[in-house]
Structures are given as C-alpha cells and as structure tokens.
Amino acid sequence: MVFKAETAGSDDLKAIISAVSTLVDEATFVASAEGITFRGMDPSHVALIDISWPNSAFEKYECDGDIRFGVKIDELGRLIKRVGKKDKIEIGISDDNKLLVTISGTKKYKIRMIESSSSETPLPKVTYDAKMVMDLQNFDRILGDIDVVSEYLTVTTKGSKSVFSGKGDSGEVSLDVKGGDEGVREITASAESTATYSLEYLNPITKAIGSAAEDITCEYSESKPLRLEFKVSNIGRIHFYLAPRVDS
Amino acid sequence: MCTTDPVHQDSRRIREVLLAAWNKHLAEAGAMTSPDELSGSSPPSVFVGAYGYPRVGIGPLVPATHGDTSILDAPERWNTETLSEIIRYRLDLVRGIKHVRADEPDGRYVESLQEMAMSVRPIDSELLFERGITRSYEQDDHATPFGSVGQIKSTSFSNAPSHPALERAYGDDDMDARQAVLSLYRAGVDVTRIQKCLSVGMFGIKRRLVPTKWSITAVDSIISRQLALDIMDTPEIDSWRVFESERLGNAYSVILYPHTWRYEMVEAWHTDGGATGFGSDSETHSGMNHTPAIAGAYFAARLGVSEYLARSKVCAGALVLREIRPEYSVPVGVWQVRQGVRDAMRGPFKTVDGIAEALSVASAHTSTSAQEWLSYSGTAHALKQKSLTEFA
Lengths: 248, 392
Prior knowledge:
Number of strands of chain B: 12
Helix content of chain B: 25-40%
Helix content of chain A: 10-25%
Largest interface: A-B, 23 and 16 residues
Shape of chain A: elongated
Structural class of chain B: alpha+beta
Order of helices and strands of chain A: EHEEEEEHEEEEHEEEEEHEEE
Order of helices and strands of chain B: HEEEHEHEEHHHHEEEEHEHEHHH
Radius of gyration of chain A: 19 Å
Number of domains of chain B: 3
CATH topology of the largest domain in chain A: DNA Polymerase III, Chain A, domain 2
Largest sheet of chain A: 9 strands, antiparallel
CATH superfamily of the largest domain in chain A: DNA Polymerase III, subunit A, domain 2
Structural class of chain A: alpha+beta
Radius of gyration of chain B: 22 Å
Distance between the termini of chain A: 53 Å
Oligomer: heterodimer
Number of domains of chain A: 2
Strand content of chain A: over 45%
Strand order of the largest sheet of chain A: 6-2-3-4-18-17-16-10-14
Strand order of the largest sheet of chain B: 1-5-6-4-3-2
Number of strands of chain A: 18
Number of helices of chain B: 12
C-alpha cells in the first residue's frame, strides 16, 4: 500500500492538529485516493469536528487504498509545532507501522501509532435557517466581547441582522451585526432563529484555526446545533458542530 | 422541624439503647479475657490507622471467641442485620496495634498480617498487650467501627490456606497496585477484602502500608473509574430510570438518564435537632480530580452505579441522592453506602420522563423535597447543554 502526502508549508497542518486537539486526545485519520479526512466528537458529545483535506491541497499526494491511522494528538502536535512556516512536511507510514513525518526532506520522525477507532460518527441532521459569513477575526472579536460577562453566547438572527448577546453574574452585553458591515459578508435568515452556545467550545476552536482561515461561515437554527465552516487555504475544509444549550 | 418530632426522639432512643448494649457488651467481653491478653479467631481482619502517618498503628482485629467469626467483618454479607446488630459484631473486635513505618511494610509482624489478610478462613490469634486494653469506640466516617484497642507486645497466629488470586497478586512485584486491585475485582474478590489487602501493603511495585480509610476510598475509586471508562463507548440508555433502596436509616435514589458518563452525588443529612445539611460533588468523563466534598461516600456510590452500567453494557449519566436520617445514629462505615447503592441497582426501576419526574419519584419517600434536591444538584444545569447525539 502506498501513502505519501506532502504539504507546501506547515500552517494548514498546524491549524488542523490544533483544531482536532481542542476536542480529543486521540485521533484516527483516514487517507484515501481523494485525500485525508477526520471526524471526531469530544467525549461528552457536545462538539464534533469533520475535516476534509482533499488531495489537491497537497503539493504531492499518493494513496492507493483506504488507510486509517490513529495518533495521540499531542505527540504529533509537539513535533509539528517545531516545524518552520515554510518547511514542507511529508507524511507516510513506515515499514514497521509507525507514522513517518519528514520535515524538509531531511528531518525524519517516526511516531508511534495507536489503535484506530472504527466507530462511525454520524453528523447531526439539521436544516439551517440562519447563515452568517464574516472575517474570522471579526467573529473572534465578537466572542471576546461576549466572554467579558458570559460563558454562553446567544445569537438571534432575523432578516439580514444578527444580535449576539450574553449574560452573567457580572452583567450583560448585546451586540448588533448587519450584513454589509465591515468584515461581514453576508447575513441571512429564512426564519427568525435564536440559540445559545457555550464559549467554552467556541473560543478554543476559533483560536486554534487562527490565521489559517480568513473567513468563517456560521449556520444554525432555533435551539439546534451550530455549524462553523473554516476554509483552510481555500481548499481544505473544517466543519465544527456544536450542540446548543437549551433552557427547560 | 422541631425536636419533639417523634423521629428525632426515636433517634435519641436508638442511640441510648445502642450505648447501653455496647457498655454491657464491653463489660462482658472484659470479663471473658484478662486485660492483657486475648485469644480468639480473627474473621480475618486487619486495620491500619491513619493517626501519626507515616508511622502508623497496624494490627489484627480479634474477638474473644473462637470458631467461624467471619460474619464479624463481612459487609458484603450484612444484608438483613439492623444497625445495633452490626455494631454488636464490631464491638466484639479488639484492635491490636503495633507502630510500623508505612514505607517499610516488612518484617515478620507485617508479613503475618498480610498472610491473615489473604486467608480463606478465620485465623486463631493470641495477642499479648503492653498495658491492657483501652475500651474505646473510635468513630471514623470511612472504616467500620470496632470495640477496644491494645498495644501489642507479642502475637501468635495459626496458619491457614490463602485465597489463590490474592496470593498471586501478592507475589507479583511487577504489577502496580492499581492493576492488582482491578485484576482481583475481576476475579470476583470482595471489595472489602481487596481494601484490607491493599492497606497492609500487599500490592504494587513499591509497597507501603495504607491507612484503612484511605485504602477503602482508593479501591472504590480505582475500580469505579475503570468501570466508568469501560462503558464510555457503549450505547447510552434509552430512558430516564429511578432506582431506590433503603438501608440502616439511609435512603438512596439513583437516577440514570441518557447521556455520556456524568456522575453526581448529593447527600442530605437530618440531625436530631431537626437541622438539615447538604453536600454534593460531581464529575464528567474526565473523572474526579479533587477530594470530593462528600469524601468516600462519593466513590462508594460511584462503584455501585458503575457496576450496574458495566454489567448492562450501557452508558448513562447518574445522579445519586442519599438521605441520611436520624435513625442512622452511629455511622458504621462507607461499605454501607456501597451496599445501599448496590441494593438499589439490583432492584427494579421506574421509568420516568425527565428530571422533574425523576426527582418527584425520588422525593416521595424522603423528607427532602424535590426542590431541595434540585437546588443542591448541578445536574439540571449541566443538562441544559444538549449533546449532538440528540440531533443525529
């Protein structure tokens, strides 16, 4: 079986590993002819990451079958963190069944693999009524503004306007955003929708993606899960699903 | 509530009756032995004190009678006994003490206690004391109580065959204590027996004596954590269920609900004076990372709940409610919580529709109201966070 994937730099892989590490300690990636995918939920089943990293996103990509490889995400993360921005990273599987990570063709790491999970994680079935597209930086700033007083973010979208709000022991905050505002590409809602999500999950994933994505697309429905989409280098795609908090 | 409440008068009366029985009993026991020697069959039972750690008082528990005394230290078999009967059993036992460093669990004396701890039957014991026996009744929230205490001058114990699984773990220097505890539990050894063996330094690579009350909590904690990990990937139960039991003036309700592993225990205690106190603690999938506010009861109940889930191969969230009534006038040890919750989980359950109905079922037999349980529990708040599984 042949498997070799080479990236042009290290930013995308850093962002992907960092995103995955916000939810799980161990990750099973699947490589096929089409590219590399990952899907996993956090242990409390509140959030899910679904990653699709197509072969076209790599400088070189070769894979002639379906390969699952499991890693301890912090073990892989520790070495990827050391790689320079422009360094090429090549990933493969060694003859003695270890993950082979070659940096700039000269530095070769062999990382132990763990038993890969075979469980299928279904995606939540939601029809999304509200959609926002904005700069990731802008979104990150909104989260920070809410975080000052609250652990949870409540969002209400009607027409082309969203109101983000939060409430905590220290006080409350409300923040209006319209489609067309600076850094806001689009806001639409086919039905007025309100939902509340935990910042404990939203903050780490947004920070993890960092500058690897420019835009974020948020979709949700009334008291239903939220889906965030990050485009990494406009080719790789990270979907982050988050279950709502519901008062009742 | 006021102090003329018949329940509280009952509680005081029960305690007085117990006190009288205990004094009479100790007087009889005293008459049976001379104050500086004791001859009897240990159930077998050993005890390691916590006072003065790491230099601890360690020794056998021995009654003044010979024969099959095993019932005197068999919490797993105490199913029909009343509180006063259990206290009678325990008051029969004299605790011999010799001081030993916890990190040096060797020498003939410690070895003889280790052999006693793994014996399949009671051990005939002769104890000579330095200065006679002090008639004390020490109370400890975790360990089972016992009658009097004597500083050991010399001992002599009969031989008996060892429990094979215990002997194997004892002989294995490469197996860490945690693995030893788990393998013995899986081999069907009683939890209270594993606790005794761990306390006298019988397991692990680097062996040490562990005060009995720590050992009890350690064993409950190790086993229940592993069982909780084992069920994390199993399917969630499909309904809300309420299990109930009552034992020795303690009422237990265990509420299970469809969720990933989440565990909370809330205790309400009602004193003679009519006051009510509450305590609670909880954990999620990552387990408990501090000493629980309600101490060893937390882990003892967690064991009862996780055993049920592991046996049924299902995952659930659990809320354990324990009401400690005035009738429970003398605490007899954490085993009572473990067995009480096991009783509940062995019984039939009521299927309910959500936390409100679960608490209303659970509070039907407690003087604590559903509203009070709710206000001391974090479960309802935590359940506001939905899981993605609910939308799959």
